[in-house]
Amino acid sequence: MASGLLHNAELCLPNELALLVLDHLEGDNKALCALARTCRGMQYLAEERLYKTIQLVSVKDLHAIIEAFTYRHDRVRAVQTLEILYQYEPGDLKDSDEHRTTFNECVAHMINLREWHIESPYDNFNWGQAGGEGWVERDMQRFRQALEAASVEGPKEAERIAAEQRLGRNMERTVGLALLESLTIHSHGAATDFWELDGFHCLFRHPTLRHLHVSCVAFPTAEIPELESHIRKTPLTSLFFDECELEPKSLLSILRTPAKLKTLTLGENVFNVNQSRRIKPILSRKAGLSLKALSAVAHSLESLTHLDPGWRTEASPHVLRNIRPSGEGMRSFYSLKYLECDTNSFLHKAVVMNHDLAPPNLETLRVRRHWDVPIDMWDQPPEFDHYAALPSLETLELLQSSFIGLELSHADYICEAERLRNRHAKAYKLSKAGVNVKMLIELHMSPGLIPPYLHDESVPIVQCIYDASTVGFHRHVFNDEVEDIGPEANTSETEDFMSSALSDARHDFSTFQALQRARDVADEKAAAATAAGKEAPETEQLGDRDVRRIKGETRRALAILRHGFVRPRHAMQSYMDPFGDDSDDDEQEHDDEDDFLVDDLDEDEDMALDLELDDDAFEGEEGVHVYEHDGELYIEVFGEETDEGEETDEEDDDEMEDAVEGGHPVVEELD
């Protein structure tokens, strides 16, 4: 087609060069628009790239895109990625029904659409506002009709095209959405935050769909008869149910349709329980039926996650319980390598706790715990002995959720010396069974930001905080010798004492220096042992210097996570540049354009994030500033100015007095 479009008397540029030019300009819409105006051939090829991806974040954009589609229908055929992300702006949405209806008709004719993302503008509990019911009855129904047509007519057209190709003839496609591969739908009902499946069972009959992510769907309690004729016929490989009301019988009908489903997330309604829904664990209360439903994908499933609201209703959700269902459990899941759930899930109670019912080739088990559970993973993880019985397990991941500002996301709490040593000792014991332990944190921006996560919302970030294989079990253990510093230092919790002494250093700097000397002695002993070539023995213990190192690494990792929620325009220069600068150069000044912005609209949460990001630096008494940078502690000491402009310092440290000149700080590394 390119040859016919580009070759004429006025254009002699070889096709290969013309296509290279177009490829080079892809993503530069302004340049592609200019190129499209040069000739008809270039217009066609340039617009193929211009309209390849469409993202609509406002209904105000609809008029222009509809006009473009009406002028040249080929632009509709060019769309391969479509994101409908209308924001909730009541004034704009009020008059958008007609434009949305017209655009939805165009969507139904997008024959080359591969990826489609839909978010209702009335989500986030706006479904009760004016227009929310119209979205469900008009927009969603038009989407359903287009998907139904693709499910019915798409396979028929594919057969006709294959027959024509065997005869050496080409046939153009006419069925919209018949090539769709990835679909995400975040919507709601007409009078509730959940929408009924109803005719949307066509989602599970689509002939080309491979990745499906749906949220807030209420599934029927009975099986779905429309899916009986599609058992193991669809190419679906990834299925994500997000905040849904799942029922075992309808789930069985759905899981029978894919030929080779590989990834499955059973996300029940965990968080959307404040408006129209109550806390209602379903799958775990019907463990036998739930396992039967999962058996439909036993031959192909590789990754399984269950998000269960059961921890909200149980008095002791951290207590490990065991149930024994009938049947073989998950012994026939030979491809399953990854399993994720919390301890209240039927997967944990019925499968993990009964090792003879567990998947025979399970390699990684991730156990979750929410921050509202009274016992956290850092302080009291589940007993590791239960997991040592899983014969194929290689990695145990214990995930603790938290949010910025909560103690569970602070390095001092996570790596408190006794907790860290107990954790490492348990990990050592499990390592003898061939299982490596990892501790992970799932950091949220705010406790009020709940799934499903919509466009431009801060998605939680998962980070490994402790990896037993990285920390290791071979070392020379040397502890800080601090007994001679004072009675309050006579404790094995050296790291906690160091933190306490640090806050007192502004009054008694000699105490602080003595503590530093104790650390130096331990470090020198460790260095001497290493230099002497002594082989480190195997041990479950951690020395004081190991605790300090791990805490410093954890602090840096958490700081990076917190900054993951920040956009590059938020006023945080003082945190990003803790050393400061006395220069008056204009280059050091920053306008509003270069400030940092927090990725959230709540000003109170923004301020809380500012305080959290700055909490590693604090002011001491006059002239003393102690802060942390890159896992190391520093202290700045400033001199005082007299009325005559001369500088004076306290007389208890002559060496420091000589170092403070011209108002510049003395910076000492405190490790």
UniProtKB/TrEMBL annotation:
<feature type="region of interest" description="Disordered">
    <location>
        <begin position="573"/>
        <end position="592"/>
    </location>
</feature>
<dbReference type="Pfam" id="PF12937">
    <property type="entry name" value="F-box-like"/>
</dbReference>
<feature type="domain" description="F-box">
    <location>
        <begin position="12"/>
        <end position="54"/>
    </location>
</feature>
<feature type="region of interest" description="Disordered">
    <location>
        <begin position="527"/>
        <end position="547"/>
    </location>
</feature>
<protein>
    <recommendedName>
        <fullName>F-box domain-containing protein</fullName>
    </recommendedName>
</protein>
<feature type="compositionally biased region" description="Acidic residues">
    <location>
        <begin position="639"/>
        <end position="660"/>
    </location>
</feature>
<dbReference type="InterPro" id="IPR001810">
    <property type="entry name" value="F-box_dom"/>
</dbReference>
<feature type="compositionally biased region" description="Acidic residues">
    <location>
        <begin position="579"/>
        <end position="592"/>
    </location>
</feature>
<dbReference type="InterPro" id="IPR032675">
    <property type="entry name" value="LRR_dom_sf"/>
</dbReference>
<feature type="region of interest" description="Disordered">
    <location>
        <begin position="639"/>
        <end position="671"/>
    </location>
</feature>
